[in-house]
């Protein structure tokens, strides 16, 4: 049983390779693994590797591949499209938890009411790696954006679920609204604009409710993701 996972993008399917210095430092100095220990690594693309630690120094430490297997992607596919938050800490928390729940991709959505922000994508990507390792997953979700609301709708394939606070017919998330590929769209704290909601209706988007409570953007995103995950079990 795997209870710890390390990440390295490029790993050969057999033979020896140099351990990434940062991950090696974590394994040797923090986790106190000694030479001969068997570690589990992923390349973030579904590869799961069992490797023997060959050195005790973080710099120029080698690993030997003992076993390799390809893990199938999480099904059905789940894409989160969410408006960036003004407070970076809240966005970072959301990104990490969304990865732990199990998303295929995360897109930062530029809406009419999105406050002007400058998300630090490299930092968000590092948090996604941390979430992947924490939840013992072998697929690193793709991060993109910011992208405009209309453009995202134009490119989305599969079922699109949108949660908004305006009046109108909205359904609870359930299996009949889901397909092999699903998108959950969550707007900014000021909600989607009437024009955006109207455009989504024209595109055949499913409007969903997340309950009667008024939720922050990051809370709404996690509630929606959790309900979708529960619905497809």
Keyphrases for this structure?
12 strands; 7-stranded parallel beta sheet; alpha/beta; Ribosomal Protein L25, Chain P; single chain; Alpha/beta knot; about 230 residues; 5-stranded mixed beta sheet
The percentage of residues in β strands lies in 25-35%
User: CATH superfamily membership of the largest domain, which one?
Assistant: SPOUT methyltransferase, trefoil knot domain
Number of structural domains:
2
**Strand order across the biggest sheet?**
8-7-6-11-9-12-10
Global morphology? elongated
CATH architecture of the largest domain: 3-Layer(aba) Sandwich
**Radius of gyration, taken over Cα atoms and rounded to an integer in Å:** 20 Å
Helix content: 25-40%
How far is it from the N-terminal to the C-terminal residue, by CA? 23 Å
Spans where pLDDT lies below 50 across 5 or more residues: none
CATH class of the largest domain: Alpha Beta
Order of helices and strands: EEHEEEEHEHEHEEEHEH
Number of strands: 12
Largest sheet: 7 strands, parallel
Total DSSP helices: 6
Task: Write the CATH fold name of the largest domain.
Answer: Alpha/beta knot
Mean pLDDT: 93
| Structural class category | alpha/beta
């Amino acid at each position: 049983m795997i209870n710890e996972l390390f990440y390295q993008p490029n790993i050969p399917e057999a033979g020896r390779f140099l351990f990434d210095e940062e991950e090696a430092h974590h394994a040797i100095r923090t986790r106190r693994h000694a030479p001969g220990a068997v570690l589990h690594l992923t390349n973030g693309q579904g590869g799961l590797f069992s490797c023997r630690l060959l050195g005790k120094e973080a710099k120029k430490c080698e690993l030997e591949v003992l076993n390799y297997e390809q893990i199938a992607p999480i099904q059905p596919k789940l894409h989160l499209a969410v408006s960036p938050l003004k407070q970076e800490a809240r966005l970072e928390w959301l990104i990490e938890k969304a990865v732990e729940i199990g998303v295929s991709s995360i897109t930062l959505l530029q809406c009419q009411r999105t406050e002007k922000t400058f998300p630090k994508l490299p930092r968000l990507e590092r948090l996604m790696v941390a979430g992947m390792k924490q939840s013992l997953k072998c697929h690193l979700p793709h991060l993109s954006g910011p992208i405009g609301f209309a453009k995202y709708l134009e490119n989305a394939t599969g079922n699109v679920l949108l949660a908004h606070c305006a009046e109108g017919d909205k359904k609870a998330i359930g299996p009949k609204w889901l397909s092999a590929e699903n998108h959950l769209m969550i707007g900014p704290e000021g909600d989607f604009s009437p024009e955006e909601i109207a455009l989504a209706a024209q595109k055949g988007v499913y409007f969903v409710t997340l309950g009667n409570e008024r939720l922050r953007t990051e809370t709404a995103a996690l509630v929606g993701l959790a309900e979708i995950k529960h619905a497809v079990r």
